[in-house]
## 1
Amino acid sequence: MTADESQDTRTDPPPKTHWLPLVALATAQFVMVLDQSAMNVSISALVADFDTTVTTIQAVITLYCLVMAMFMLTGGKIGDIIGRRRAFVIGLVIYACGSALTALAPSVLILALGWSVLEGLGAALVLPAMVALIAGNFEGASRKVAYAVIGGVAGAGIAVGPILGGWATTEYSWRIIFAGEVLLVALILVMTPKVADAVRTGPALKLDVVGTVLSATGLGLVVLGVLQSSTWGWLRPKEDSPVTPFGFSLTVFVIGFGAVLLWAFTAWQGRRESRGRDPLVHLALLKIAPLRAGLIGLFSQNLILMGVFFTIPLYLQLVIGLDALDTGLKMLPVSIAMFLSSAAGSRLSGRYPIRSIVRAGLATTMVATVLLLAAVEPELDNSSFAWSMALLGVGMGLMASQLGNVVQSSVDASGRGEAGGLQFTGQQLGSSLGVALLGAIVLSGLTSAFVSNVSSDEQISSAVSEQVGVAVGSGIDFVSADQIGAAAQEAGLDEPTTAALVGDYESAQIQALKTGLLAAAFLALFSLAFTRDLPHEVAQEGRGADETEAGSHA
């Protein structure tokens, strides 16, 4: 921490705890998580409403998470500069404008502007400010309760989202979700004056504009490269690749340039600190081993969860043929289990080390994704699918119950604003990469499996097989088998050939989805290697985790 940060003080809490501020902050947390969980079950409806493709909606969902990840550090710093409550209010207003625009969106472009850009920017201001305001409005046991409530509300939002989104989409329209968010934000703004602001003394801070540009652009390019890999190819370029530098796909160069900009960002932050100027984020925070391990854990958790949440609705809606409401109901076990295990996990930390709980969560997640591999078949096995999804929720809940507290308790009060920015950056970067990476794996796997199935199918002539290879050479979108049959009939193919093509496509769908889930299982296994630095001692009875850890790591 810099010298001026040590002068960061907050208003004294009222002698008697007032819980209305917590209601306001918790409602804001609910609104922030509702979109991501509700809209995953509405992918097919969005594709139909805007006459677009799954790939396009994948990009919109990815962009929403990415915008938050790109500007979360900047949002946290703006809160330091103008005041956390003011940043909270401004962020809510921007978010509400985005929700209103999304509810009325006549095209995919307006949808992306309202949902992905405006809501993403609003959330980047709200979330870091929310964490700091909790610390500023509550102390001791009350603060622990407040953080637990916020975590529980986040879990409730994830649990309610698929059902609410499925019900609204099936019975009315997905647009109702966004219209309702506008009303919720208005309610929060009415309660906000009761939230005590955090005041800051000492030298005035200035926003690191260069750092903002470098970090946002670097993160954006890395995720863009991963997102476009199914269209451009990873190394070998596909036909739709706009340019092919040195004969390679553009993907590797976009990701590489993004990595270079992120390296330049770290160098720039070090330069500002050495000159006594306030950086966008003090990178010394990343030298705190528990904090670093917590951030990696949050990144991994959201990467796996959002990747699976993107993949499973494709299976339920485009393979099995369920509507949005039935999709939400089928996904309910993961949401309920995540909520319950998250609540139980906060109690387990008093009996077991945090590292052991997180490792158990990762191991459970890995087992759950492997079980989902067996459950994803042309005919849905309701029992095995439900148990697999519930087990996935248990694993995710165990991780969620520990990692946020690890990050916040690894620093003292003056570092919680930046730690919150890093925390939400890690979460949203994981979410955006989860949708981009697992989506790219599924779409690339669908193309290669379909071409392979057709070329080896004796019922399909070599001429038709060659035509299919040319038609899908640059990639194929994830559509229902009926659409493939209709396209084949439109092309004048006979009934046996059409039936064979549909069968090959259905087989490719299952194989591609299984490939995506297998990748998620390997990601969970790989993440276990980064848990070594998590706290491995049982928290002492009577002391909050923030007191135990901050004292030894601040």
## 2
Amino acid sequence: MRNKLSLYIYAAFCFAVAATSCKKFLDTDSPSNFTQEYIYANSNEAVKGVYSIYALFNQDAFTSRLSDSFIPNTDVEVGGVGAAPDNSRRDIWSMEATDANGDLRTVWENAYKAINMANIAVEGIEQSPKAADASMKQLLGEAKALRALWYYWLINYWGDVPFKLKPTRGGDSLYLGRTDRGVILSTLIQDLMSVEPGMKSAADVEYGVERVNREFVQGLIARLALCRGGYWLYPDMAMRRKEDYKDYYQIARDYAHKVIYDWGRILNPSFAAVFDNESKWIVDSKSDVLYEVAFQPGFGDVGWNIGMAVDAGDHNYGSGSTYKPLTPSYAYSFDTLDTRLAKTVAFIKYDKTLTQAPIAVTSLGIGNWSRLLMPTPSGPTSAKGTGINWPIMRLSDVMLMYAEAENELNNGPTGDAIAMLKTVRKRAFSSDNWAAKVDAYVAAVANGKEAFFNALVNERAWELGGECIRHYDLIRWNLFGKKIAEAKAKLAQMGENSVNGAGPYDYLPDNLFYRIKTDKTIEWFGSIFRKNTVMPPLKDSPSKGDNPNGYTRASWMSALYNSTTKGPADYILRSWRGYKDETGSAPAPYILPLHSSVVSSSLGTLKNEGYYF
């Protein structure tokens, strides 16, 4: 399905009418407010107001920042960091951002524009004489869910933030202080619980999962509840959670249960097909995806700044790569029989002639999306604007949230929790491997609360890696610092062991050997997962022209080792530079400072205090 043009024509129209540029982040007074009674008099007009909220996903603040390139480096996705801070998004990746970083202002302002758009729509619908109509209830749910989603992102980056549920108009105070994020989350959860029953399922709403629907809102309630029941970083640099956290695990359990059991959804039998559908512009509203941000061709950066790397050149597909590659420690954590590995981790790229080429071990691509699968190539000079949708939530995510909540509430895994983990793993392995990789594996980790929880931590990495939600999980689990320390130690060992031939990772290849076949695909000598015991014939060795069908050597795990210092390579030393604790005991400093312009325009109501700012 690719019938989204009308959605974004309306969205662009409403955005142009309703939004104005602002000097202060809350100064979003709309010149269209005088027409609010007309706009929300019926659902045919009201839908335009709600679509204006979706329009904010088309801004750079979301497409090339918040969605996938704004997150700090984790144990899964890691963006390349330079020799010194450079006041770019790389400083966010390394947890070194200052209040002068322009990306902070860009995302903050876009978030509050979207929230104000949602506030306008909510007020208009609630005051409409048609508010009781089924179509208006659906629109109200969409507006409230989109508002909640933006607040969820804000609190995960900035902690306590200004909280407003009414549209800003002339005469309103523009100088709001911070509201406790616990209050924000509790309010939003109750807000969504009140509107969810009046919403339509994806099967019954126009555009399906390209619009917010009932099962997604149920899943969003579960996600917000786990965040409310999880840990947060406080200004004194301590991680804590509220005493009533189990109340929110119960909410998460109950609403995840609704998603799983009330709608007859099943996982797509093919993990790869979930993402291939998005690359092919196919919208599947019946299986995995609960909600995905819709991008018309010409919009969206999926396949440009995340996905299979393609060099510009002698073809019509343009260019793209992955800003936030996957760590080698993550890639090599997969069971080699896990079918998700081949889709998630891209060990190769495509050059200017669409010939496969090796990729650096420190630049492992996220292979879920590929611009080469687009039904209509976007042209040789194209880059952005692929029209590939971005998933916000999938069914397997909810299944694992459900298993997590069941495990926490019952002090160990229940039968339902075990069934969810098995369901996710069954798709990951061929049926002839289920006995060992599903039944035996799950039985071994289901012998206690901690073991099962740790299995879920790993499973969420393997199932959701590359979708850029890992750091939200690590925050609420209070595992961010620990996982950084583990990743650094493992990467250092992988590099040193592979080069020196001793240690637990001595079997990993320090170099790889490859050649290109006539069909332009790459052929590895031996395995990329184990060191070769014999040396292959090398191309142009010992002299140029020798062994024309020989192999080429490429540095691999050796790139993780500095042979001069006899220690970790710069990649390991720089990627998490803002986190200083090698033991992983200290909290990761994931909270961002407010941009200096936000502080100055608040006239003293907002400050950068605590968090070592």
## 3
Amino acid sequence: MPITPPYRFAVVTHIPNMPQIMRSFTDAPGFTLEFFTFSYQHPLLAAQRLLDQGYEVILYYSSLGSSILNELGRSVVVIQKTDVDIIKALAEAKKIAPRIALTVNKDDNFDTSFVESLLGVRIMEIRFDSLDSLSDGLSIAIAEGMDVLVGGGMSAAMAKKNGIPFVRIEPDLHSISLAIAQAKAIANAQRVERESLDKLVAVLKLFREGVLCVNEQGATVFSNSKAAELLKVGQFGKSGPDFSRHHQALMISDVLTDGEPREDCVVKIHGEQFVVTTLPVSVHSGLQGAVAFISDVNAIHNMAGQLRESQRPDGFVAHFRVEDIRGESPAMLRLKRMARLYAPHNAAVWIHGETGSGKELLAQSLHNASPRARHPFVAVNCAALPESLLESELFGYAEGAFTGAKRGGKPGVFEMAHKGTLFLDEIGDMGLETQSRLLRILETKELVRVGGDRVIPVDIRVLSASHKPLPQLVRENRFRRDLFYRLAALRLHIPPLRERPSDIPLLLDDILRRYGSSHQDLTAPMLQAMREYSWPGNIRELRSFVESYLILLGGKPTDQTLFMELLESWSCDQEPDTDENTPRPAMPHGEADLKSQLTLARRDIATRMLHESGGNKRLAASRLGISYNTLWRILENVSEDKT
């Protein structure tokens, strides 16, 4: 354990032999005593110098000790004179002469009349509260012919000057012991307080915010280096940085005037914005000063972004890259080249493509190739939500914004995507009112939650997509023209699958591998049939169809007949976006009679239900309301007439 140094006490007195009187205390453990002669010229200044020299408590034996205590506070202890001490001095004075002048502080409760009758002497009482009143009283006593002076240091000087006998009032050991005990308690409390203060100052110095403390007069008590750095304040002589010119902006002047706190106020100093909280410092209900906490707005934005990122739900991650976009056709090579060119920039990108063409995959690729790749990728399907719900999902809502609103409110996807990318899919289905709010956020980079009143800054890149042609919606006044140009600064068009049939084999790599199959299991007629089909559902439809075929194979390497029949059933069931002149594959066996069509329809229904049931035939049969054997016959094309 560290060794605790002894307390340092200064004893200030007018008694020359005070070291001898206090000899029994000078060797006591735990403290040291050093003696100084009381200064009548500048007593307060002399006391302050002793404290500045590191003495922890000053012990005064002087009638003026009380006035110094009032000025300096608790670092001063007065060695009290008791009535017994005074009576002892008066008894000594009586031996010299019966007419005695006694100096008494005006606050002392001393019964002079009782002592006169007790000792049989005449006492002239000199009541004083300052050096001037003491000097005047002594002069009057000498002029009136008092025989003996009883008192302290000034009385001794006056008596010596005028050749009058003098008796000094000396303290007893009990009073000295009480004063030392009090001094030790004060010194210990000061050390504990200083240690706590040092710890507090050490913590405040480490604050990422600027901290400025002032006393009730506005003088700086403490400031950390961050405050000087933020406010661009240099050293100002020995007193440290001068913040006085910023007191008004920091609201210190106002807080010192009315004692009311100012919290989270945005102020501008040197052209830069800061968030300032200034609080009154009160002790025992009395205003003792103020403390200002100064935060850089940019740092707050960064912290808010980190908080948003830490609180965002899992899943706001982009999984695909430009390299994952399958296709070697000229149109797809051009698309990938443009995506790489657009990705590093913050400009908004509008992706146009039919349903199932891979718009979100392209959006994720743009995000992962951008400087925002480490931050959230948040996707919202604007067509999947009603307009009233879409607004709160996009912008969030404040507590109590509507019935059923979550306590504390809820951040919207704009906040969740802070520092990252927000992908608005099917934006053509967004209502005009929501479009207006979206446009304002894109222009100001700030939002207000539904039902809220606080402005929240956001830093995001917006990618949007639609299968509907936005220029046509603009002409029909169903989409804001100004928002369209804001969203479509850069534009990417994904060609439909029917325009790039050569890419079909590349698009099937993953699903064939997943089911243990390969391209060798696809015959030339099967590939040709897929190239000739229009694929109104694009890549999504292609993969769903091939997965259905692979499930129905039941472990066989290939079955061209099954493949062609299944494709025909899909082509009959779809309503492609292309015109009716788009060629379709011919029926594999040339059968177009009613019986064949009904057989295909039954198989198609059974196949779809099997797919929805995860390949579980018993579950599919139960859902169709038929027996397991009947389902098997339908799937295996076994005529019921043969059963």
## 4
Amino acid sequence: MKVNKTRVLIGSPIHQKPMVLREFLNSLQRLNLDNIDLDFHLIDDNDDEESSRLLQEFKSMGDHIYLHSSGFHDAYIRNDITHFWNSDLVWKVADFKNLMINRAQTLNYDYLFLIDSDLILHPDTLRHLIGTNKDIISEIFWTQWQPETMFQPQVWMHDEYNQWKLLPGEKLQPEEINRRFHEFIAELRNPGIYEVGGLGACTLISQHAIKAGVSYNQIRNISYWGEDRHFCIRAAALGIPLFVDTHYPALHLYRDSDLSKVEDFIRETTEAGADSTESESSLSTEEVPILAEPTSITDNESFKETVPTTRKRPKLTLTMVVKNESGRFLRQVLEEHRKYIDEAVIIDDGSTDNSAAICLETLEGIPVHLIHNTKSKFSNKIELRKQQWEEVLKTNPEWILNLDADEIFEASFAANLEPLLYANEVDLFCFRLYDLWNADHYREAIYWRPHLNYRPFLLRYKEDFNYVWNESPQHCGRFPENIFELPHQLSNLRLKHLGQWKEQYLSILDEHPHLIPWVE
């Protein structure tokens, strides 16, 4: 009799030291996967090339591993005392986690398991958490947040990190708070499942919770620090209780010195697994594959990413305005776009070269609706954009991708587009646009950081939505201005801007700008 396996997506934003990352990845390979189909969504946010190399090696184990670069190069300072976070880092990570939630929902996973990259798991962690049948549950781990202090769990009962029970309106004296705090800590030392008010870092989230609307978006009228607080408050408001499991505590490599504990942790968890029938399929220490010799975690057929097969893929219409682009990047960008578009609507805004012919030639075999303006409308851009919009609507579009003739997505876009098009609860996707300085670098400076902002490029057309334009002659936008009233999402797929304005070049006085290599 065929057993239906539980489909799980492990998600982890990774900015990590190589020695810690290696142990984390090897820990994932030790997981007991009986009746589990496991995929990965990993975001490479590293500034260490060795860490990025380790992730590439891990990715080579199969197409069940989705890995992409964050495109950021933020400084994250940590030492053997503590870690230093700032608000930008917190909400960057929140965006990463929201991308993973969106992927889990779009591809209909049973569970999303979000885990920080400095944790080492007991092999039975994932299978056990699934077996609890909780919508949101974390596995516990213990940390000395400062040297020479007591170990505390990553869960709490209320507010930002209050680790004692408190009834609504109850006022406690310091002595009672201290008693309840130690009572809470002692309780979590016993194997069990406990309801808590806050959790994070090692959390299993069910499909039901995801569909209910959990997310890491900031709640604007709450000033609590950290994206996990906002996630937990939103979950509680949705009526979803939070739980922590304490049967299989994870090892937290909070400091480099914690690496000395890994060998004992592996030995203890492996020996414990060998003594129980629950863990008979766990790998022994000698059987654990190392990253220098990548192997599949399980049968690769179980990991092939799927999208709904019961209906045809939604149509994707590319639209752009071109004018005298034949000597620039037009052919290059269209060669890339033809890999994934179904149709194109192009306004030739008074070209005097063969731009129109290049469009038809490069997109041969794809329906192209080419409109010629004998007189350019560029001086009144709102008229031009409205014309472009109306011509697109004549083709009965589903998804509209609005790009300029010198904009091209990174190579991984074609392979990762379909989950976006199948996203039933998202109507608009925003992307970061990187101004390339040359073929291999983009510029970053204090006054030149457009790639930190997300802009709308991919829109699902809704017939029943009343679209309203910004009537400004020049700064009207590519789409109607009220599209952000529609459900929207940020995507970490990146867009390259191959050309620059003359005015931008003339404004640059720095002869030695800060250039960052572009990495696919």
